[in-house]
TrEMBL record:
Alphabetized PANTHER family for the sequence: GLYCOSYL HYDROLASE-RELATED (PTHR10963), GRAM-NEGATIVE BACTERIA-BINDING PROTEIN 1-RELATED (PTHR10963:SF60)
Annotated organism of origin: Anopheles christyi
A GO molecular-function annotation: carbohydrate binding
Sequence intervals crossing the membrane: none
Sequence ranges assigned to domain CBM39 in this UniProt record: 18-119
Keyword tags: Signal
Signal sequence, renumbered to the chain: 1-17
Name of the protein this chain belongs to: CBM39 domain-containing protein
């Protein structure tokens, strides 16, 4: 690719009358960006190709790409998208092809780093028209929280970094013998310090075997009874709250924890990000649910 590029330069060397100006980037909200070059008589096309945080290896199409064939009312050839969310420090890798007076021009291996001065606003550029620099304080979004409360596009609506060391008020334990999972017969969710705790800014969930508990005996798992105080069966099903072992029905041999936010935070539409270390081992699996 590089050698072709070199040849192209030599070939065009005689007729170069145009240099692609610096591409101007703007990101007036948390989402999306604009990339533009000024209009010049003779300009026929501005093809913009970009992707986030990953350099191009070739002239690939790019995740954010369009051939712009007319200047906008501001007199700029502008690529505009509202798709990606652009956190501070995002690197926009891009390449550009411009057709000018029936000749093609390239800008390759370019990158632009998003630097935000405020949480939602980009630095203003002096040449931008007022209509484009006026950042709506609260862009509209379909997202609602806690049963209909509205919010702003791009706004973080819930976060827990577990720095405060407490489950309340955000999280509640479920206490039940679940009937809604494939392995229902093997586990009970309980609120016990050995099964769930917060330490050093982390929520830790540890499944334990009932054989590890002091009052365990084989007799008990086959003939005993388990009654969960403070049971939280969502369907008020008594079978989720107590179990009597008999014949093939044993008491669940595993105790684990399940937590939810439903009394504190609910949302409709949005993106969930979780940073978690996942367990390794037979019969162990993490679950993340979003419930109605
Ligand atoms: C964005 O990052 C730059 C450089 O890392 C930093 O100087 C600036 O304060 C950051 N802006 C915000 C809003 O965090």
């Amino acid at each position: 690719m590089r050698s072709i590029w070199g040849l192209l330069l030599l070939f065009l060397g005689q007729t170069v009358a145009y240099t692609i100006p610096t591409v101007r980037f703007e990101y007036p909200t948390m989402r999306g960006f604009r990339a533009s070059i000024p209009d010049t008589p003779g300009l026929q096309m501005f093809a913009f190709h970009a992707r986030l945080n990953k350099p191009f290896e070739q002239f690939e199409e790019g995740d954010y790409t369009e051939d712009i064939t007319v200047p906008d009312e501001e007199g700029r050839w502008t690529y505009d998208t509202n798709k990606p969310a652009l956190p501070n420090g995002t690197i926009i890798y891009y390449w550009v092809y411009v057709q000018f007076a029936n000749e093609g021009y390239w800008l390759t291996d370019k990158k632009h780093t998003v630097i935000r001065t405020k949480a939602t606003a980009a630095p203003r550029t002096t040449t931008t028209k007022p209509t484009t620099t006026t950042v709506p304080p609260c862009p509209a979004t379909l997202t609602t929280l806690n049963g209909g409360q509205s919010t702003c596009a791009g706004k973080l609506i819930f976060e827990d970094t577990f720095e405060l060391g407490s489950f309340a008020p955000k999280w509640q334990h479920e206490v039940r013998i679940p009937l809604d999972t494939d392995s229902a017969e093997f586990v009970s969710y309980q609120n016990l310090p050995e099964n769930s705790y917060i330490a050093a800014g982390r929520l830790v969930i540890v499944p334990t075997l009932v054989t590890q508990s002091a009052d365990y005996n084989d007799e008990r798992i086959r003939t005993g009874e388990l009654t969960l105080a403070g049971c939280t069966s969502p369907t008020n099903n008594p079978y989720e709250c107590q179990r009597k072992a008999a014949r093939s029905t044993i008491l669940p041999p595993v105790v684990s924890a399940k937590l939810n936010t439903k009394h504190h935070f609910r949302f409709r539409y949005g993106r969930v990000e979780i940073r978690a270390k996942l367990p390794k081992g037979d019969w162990i699996f993490p679950r993340k649910h979003t419930h109605n």
